[in-house]
């Protein structure tokens, strides 16, 4: 039996606006802000029209109300993180300057999307039953999974990232005691033909708006660390560069991990140099340190007293890399690592500065 639909056209407008603002990570920033603000304003009116609820409430309705309450809290979080992210993007002050507002904004938005589906399904159960309800639940589930996996994927792969590298790097200095080296390994500088890379996206390469140069995530972090500390800067470069395709590079990195010999690297002028601290910046590769980093320490013979790992990743955090570094440099004091999600790299200057100020002194 089918009863009258409890949905009004404004409900569909709300859903469409929310989906549009979720996909807004691929749209110009102002469009994303406009869609998000319109959604929140209409959602507020929508909540007012649904309240109050009187009398005995059936279980399904109770679930719906609970989902709506959770949804309201999540949307409040989306609003707060959205405002802070906007302030941060325009270089203005935020309540917690070191917080990764972008990451929490995406997490809360995806959680809100899940809560919206529970809310919509409990509403749908008032006009549907049997196979219609199961069909709607199945459809909602598929849409949900697509969004949960698709949106972070789109964020990393399809969002074309252009930055002002000089502005991203500049900031207050961190006094560093002793002789310090910043050494980094990145896909930039290790890729055969940068003009053929398959993605200029949050996953790896960013384009500097002013020079047009492509920068790797680890490279940008290393430049931030170097500018903050004034330390010497060195790049790990393999003798045979990796191909421009991401998946080809992933395949070669897997082979390197399996093989007993790490890749050859180009000569550096640092051989035998002594450093009190080494800030080592690298991308997580197959859950650990790229093997070229191993070659670097073996070839140069550098044995730092203290090692500060700064790791950029695509959701794997530090993986097994600290264990691998401890094996590689058994005499070094290894600080807790700083991990930066790939698409958060352009905004990581403050977080990195806080980390270095704490760990270097
Ligand atoms: C060969 C290869 C393997 C990777 N393996 C992982 C991994 O295991 N876990 C992860 O979270 N990210 C992984 N990534 C993603 C990178 O760590 C991430 O995109 C990083 O920000 C890239 O930094 P880069 O631009 O300096 O190379 C891998 C990337 C490549 C190219």
* Hetero groups: flavin mononucleotide
- Spans of at least 5 consecutive residues whose pLDDT stays below 50 are none
Domain unit count: 2
Shape: elongated
Distance between the termini: 71 Å
What's the CATH class of the largest domain, please?
Alpha Beta
Helix fraction, binned, reads: 40-55%
Any idea what the CATH architecture of the largest domain is? Answer: 3-Layer(aba) Sandwich
Given helix and strand content, the structural type is alpha/beta
Radius of gyration: 24 Å
CATH fold label of the largest domain: Rossmann fold
Query: Mean pLDDT, as a whole number?
Result: 85
Percentage of residues in strands: 5-15%
Beta-strand segment tally: 9
Q: Major β-sheet, in short?
A: 6 strands, parallel
CATH level 4 superfamily of the largest domain = Flavodoxin domain
Number of helices: 11
| SSE string, helices as H and strands as E | HHHHHEHEEEHEHEHEHEEH
